[in-house]
Amino acid sequence: MLKINETRLLSDIEELARIGATADGGVSRPALTAVDLEARRWFQRKVAEAGLAYAQDGAGNQSAILHSDPPGAKRILAGSHLDSVPNGGRYDGSLGVLVALEALRTLKDHDIVPALTLEALNFTDEESAIMGLMGSKAVAGRLSMADYGRSRVDAAELSRRFAAAGITRESMLTATRDDVLAWVELHIEQGTRLESAGLDIGVVDAIVGIRSLHVTFRGEAAHAGTMPMNQRRDALWGAASFVLRARRHVMDNYSPGVCNVGMIQAAPGAFNIVPAEVACALEFRHGSDAEMDAMEVDLLRLLEECAAEFDLSVSQQATPPVIPARMNESVMGAIERAADNLGLSHERMLSFAGHDTQNMAAIAPAAMYFVPSVKGISHNPNELTTDGDCVKGANLMLHTLLELTTAFA
Ligand SMILES: [Zn+2]
Question: How far is the centre of ligand 1, averaged over its atoms, from the C-alpha of 208 (Å)?
Fold first, then answer.
């Protein structure tokens, strides 16, 4: 059975990790900063050394291309992102780009001309240093000038970074593609489900949707000593009750869905004043939109109940939601057949984090798979996927691409 070049893949991981390396073993490569540009040049050099074709689109997405014979316009795409969060790990995103590149190089080494043209991609700015999922949004036609306006870096810095990477405000809107037959991405799990279950591979069947609400409980400020306990309208009591009841309710009724209250602020905010107002940030995630609708109804009812329990009022304001992305059955099937052929154990699971694949799913049959993350650590210098798991993931990419060229030819 055809296998990728392990030594080459592992040395690539080491080499790339030196670009933007931090003292504690992680990497800092925010999108289109000097170090990210260095990583991008490194990728381009690797593509040239491999004798693959190279392309960069208007949004700065980089591609290694292995042409079919005769060359066809429609392609199978795979990849991820080389940028990282500040002080992040060396596997998040990078491993997905490197295994896609390695799969193409392996085919080239063995003079295998694929039935369909294959492309290994590095998407620009997945990690939100600038706009977030910028490259994949651009490819999916989901990027607009409004995203440019909402950039996290100021206008001068943004135009400097764009210019250095050969991108313009206009060009980023020209990266939309209609030549994609299928998309597949390898990513580290960033969770502990695979490790706990002793599995090699997690085949993602949906990327969760996210809904967020700003919630405010309102009671009345009072003297923390003189006001009797049974007469207080303590806004924090309502919020505290909600946090624990929401946890129980979601665990009992919406598993594997999750909810989080990640910010809580009491006002006026002093030792000796009963809190009059509490603002919290509530977020919940699930792979099914219908389940998210039901979760929302339940959580809103729970808010009212918790407010009533302590004689408070409550209001909430929603922020724009992220819709769950279902993965494509044919692409998941290709991953699973390839995993079976390689003797890799696998199970379907949700992705609780956002990925470029959610955008690709809007324009083509798409799916992604996870390899284990030691202790689930991610966005952290201690992020680790063992060499053995990197190699398994790369062989799975190679054989998934071969399965896809058959399925979509
Ligand atoms: Zn990532």
Answer: 15
